[in-house]
Design a protein that fits this description.
Length: 200
């Protein structure tokens, strides 16, 4: 008799637990009918972000008048808590390239990116690193080209972004490359445009 009572109690406990889980799932489905089903059981950290965009090629220089394609990959190489002050000081690694359509200066670059949240949606970024390019390095550049001085430079970029979702974001970015006067010429290169990012 005692065993039968324990069995009945066990079945009742399982039924109560299952009912509670189903009720919770129903509330989640009512709030977000697609997200509750597609959300993973365990949230994994997002380590990579890829960005693609179109830049106006140095619109205030001899090379003005054309467009560039930009592609960039970012990687969370260092553990960071974005909600903390120290976490905001931890950078991501980035590598990318800006490639011109009109035979003007193209470049490949790599460095560090710092991201700071203004709100849950808006954020700003600063990036710093180095670049190599195929620009003109002669003492006097041909007409329509920047006098880059040498085939390398320091690469900086600033970004204002808006998160469309947890994965997608849109950004306005300015990038600048120059050799800081360490070579015989230092006209530099400044591109500005829009990019779309996807984090995975």
């Amino acid at each position: 008799m005692t065993r039968r009572i324990l069995t009945i109690r066990s079945v009742a406990a399982v039924f109560t637990t299952a009912t509670g889980l189903l009720a919770g799932q129903s509330v989640a489905l009512a709030a977000d009918p697609f997200g509750a089903l597609s959300a993973p059981v365990v949230s994994q950290p997002r380590l990579f972000e890829i960005r693609l965009g179109v830049y106006s090629h140095d619109p205030f220089s001899p090379e003005k008048g054309s467009a560039d394609i930009n592609a960039e990959l970012l990687y969370d190489a260092f553990p960071r808590d974005r909600s903390s002050l120290w976490g905001a000081l931890v950078p991501r690694l980035h590598a990318g390239g800006t490639f011109g359509f009109a035979g003007k200066t193209s470049q490949a670059y790599a460095g560090l990116t710092w991201t700071w949240d203004i709100t849950q949606k808006f954020f700003v970024e600063a990036g710093f690193g180095g670049a190599v390019h195929n620009g003109k390095t002669t003492l006097v550049a041909p007409v329509g080209f920047n006098a880059m001085g040498c085939g390398w430079g320091f690469h900086e970029q600033g970004t204002l972004g808006y998160r469309l979702s947890t994965a997608w974001s849109i950004m306005a970015t300015v990038e600048h490359t120059s050799n800081a006067g360490l070579c015989k010429q230092n006209r530099g290169l400044t591109n500005v445009g829009l990019r779309l990012g996807y984090t995975f």
